């Protein structure tokens, strides 16, 4: 018998969440973001779940190639663009659209396009509108645009930026409206579609005009913050489950797990779950992180170890070896587990380890 841990992917949930993303951004076209192996869900499953998206966007050139090999015909966008000249062969071979965010990429494009005349590469020119991660400053943006526009081999140029605080619009250091105003100032008078929206914009700021939206985490049934996935009508696409593989009856005052960090206040029944940090469950999840056993909500006790952690079964009637354990997914949101562990649902979804078997619902 295989170890009982399992990640179950619900393709119909991916489809459903894409419909919600579309409904919230009427008239906009959708890049379904599938970076990091579709936030841990698998590229082949993403292709099926997001068949109705206008394109797929990701970071990794080699995974972009895989999307073509798997049969995806519609546009593909590299969100960090290309990293060196060699990537441009992949860009043309796989017909990829590319983000351009620094001047060296323009120089590479000039050199590459001068050597051939067949391709038209669509560009997503990225502005740093205040997040200070990738992109041209508003002042440098116009010159970059002109330099690209002058190239024969450049097709459409989309005007792109990324927002630091769409889930926290009144952020004191960088309010959402300030970033939008900076972007508007930088693109004033330039022709081209706009691409500004991640999940947080799609879910919470439909008023911001974006010809292209780039939702990621919401498509998998989690949120960037600012409301539960359920409240937006999203359905979790990944359910991580396992089983109880051992039970201990302990007296008051006994310790559980490495470092003996948890001490029972009363006699307890403690179950051992076949799931640990080597499966992607966060090691920093403290005692009290929510877990569901046989449909009953309970919590972790003690430290998470590599292959196991413990749960309180004292109030889970009938729990035994073989009882079903829900780590996150349908019935317990990954955002809630992540919050208890001091992180975000994104990290947990992306971190499910290669040793966990995946099946489809
Ligand atoms: C990851 C990413 C997105 C999607 O972000 P979510 O918060 O997951 O919706 C959108 N745009 C860019 C440039 C990204 O890197």
TrEMBL record:
InterPro entries per UniProt: Ala_racemase, Ala_racemase/Decarboxylase_C, Ala_racemase_C, Ala_racemase_N, Ala_racemase_pyridoxalP-BS, PLP-binding_barrel
Single annotated GO MF: alanine racemase activity
Record-annotated Alanine racemase C-terminal domain positions: 237-361
Catalytic activity, EC: 5.1.1.1
Broad enzyme group: isomerase
Binding of substrate, residues: 133, 306
Pathway as given in its UniProt record: Amino-acid biosynthesis; D-alanine biosynthesis; D-alanine from L-alanine: step 1/1
Keywords in alphabetical order: Isomerase, Pyridoxal phosphate
Cofactor: pyridoxal 5'-phosphate
Gene3D superfamilies recorded: Alanine racemase, Lyase, Ornithine Decarboxylase, Chain A, domain 1
Residue numbers of N6-(pyridoxal phosphate)lysine PTMs: 35
Active-site feature positions: 35 (proton acceptor), 258 (proton acceptor)
A GO BP entry: D-alanine biosynthetic process
Catalytic activity: L-alanine = D-alanine
GO CC annotation terms, alphabetical: cytosol
Its job: Catalyzes the interconversion of L-alanine and D-alanine. May also act on other amino acids.
Entry similarity comment: Belongs to the alanine racemase family.
PANTHER family reported in the protein's UniProt record: ALANINE RACEMASE, ALANINE RACEMASE, CATABOLIC-RELATED
Protein name, UniProt field: Alanine racemase
Lineage: Bacteria, Pseudomonadati, Pseudomonadota, Betaproteobacteria, Burkholderiales
């Amino acid at each position: 018998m295989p170890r009982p841990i399992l990640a179950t992917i619900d393709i119909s949930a991916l489809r459903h969440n894409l419909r919600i993303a579309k409904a919230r951004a009427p008239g906009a076209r959708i890049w379904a973001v599938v970076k990091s192996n579709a936030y841990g869900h698998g590229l082949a499953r993403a292709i099926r779940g997001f068949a109705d998206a206008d394109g797929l966007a990701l970071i990794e050139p080699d995974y972009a190639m895989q999307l073509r090999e798997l049969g995806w015909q519609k546009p593909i966008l590299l969100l960090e663009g290309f990293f060196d000249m060699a990537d441009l062969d992949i860009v043309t071979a796989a017909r990829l659209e590319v983000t351009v965010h620094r001047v060296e990429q323009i120089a590479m494009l000039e050199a590459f396009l001068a050597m051939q005349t067949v391709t038209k590469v669509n560009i997503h020119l990225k502005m740093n509108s205040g997040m200070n991660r990738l992109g041209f400053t508003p002042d440098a943006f116009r010159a970059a645009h002109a330099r690209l526009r002058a190239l024969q081999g450049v097709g459409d140029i989309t005007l792109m930026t990324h927002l630091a605080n769409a889930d926290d619009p009144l952020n004191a250091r960088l309010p959402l409206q300030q970033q939008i105003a900076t972007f508007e100032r930088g693109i004033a008078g330039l022709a081209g579609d706009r691409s500004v929206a991640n999940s947080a914009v799609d879910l919470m700021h439909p008023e911001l005009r974006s010809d292209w939206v780039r939702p990621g985490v919401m498509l998998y049934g989690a949120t960037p913050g600012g409301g539960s996935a359920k409240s937006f009508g999203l359905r979790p696409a990944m359910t991580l489950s396992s089983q109880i593989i051992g039970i201990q009856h302990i007296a008051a005052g006994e310790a559980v797990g490495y470092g003996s960090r948890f001490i029972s206040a009363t006699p307890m029944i403690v179950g051992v779950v076949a799931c640990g940090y080597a499966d992607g469950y966060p090691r920093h999840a403290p005692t009290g992180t929510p877990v569901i056993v046989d449909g009953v909500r309970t919590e972790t006790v003690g430290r998470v170890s590599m292959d196991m952690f413990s749960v309180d079964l004292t109030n889970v009637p009938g729990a035994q070896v073989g009882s079903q354990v829900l780590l996150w997914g349908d019935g317990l949101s990954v955002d809630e587990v992540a919050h208890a562990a001091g992180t975000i649902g994104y990290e947990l979804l992306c971190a499910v380890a290669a040793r966990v078997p995946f099946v489809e619902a």
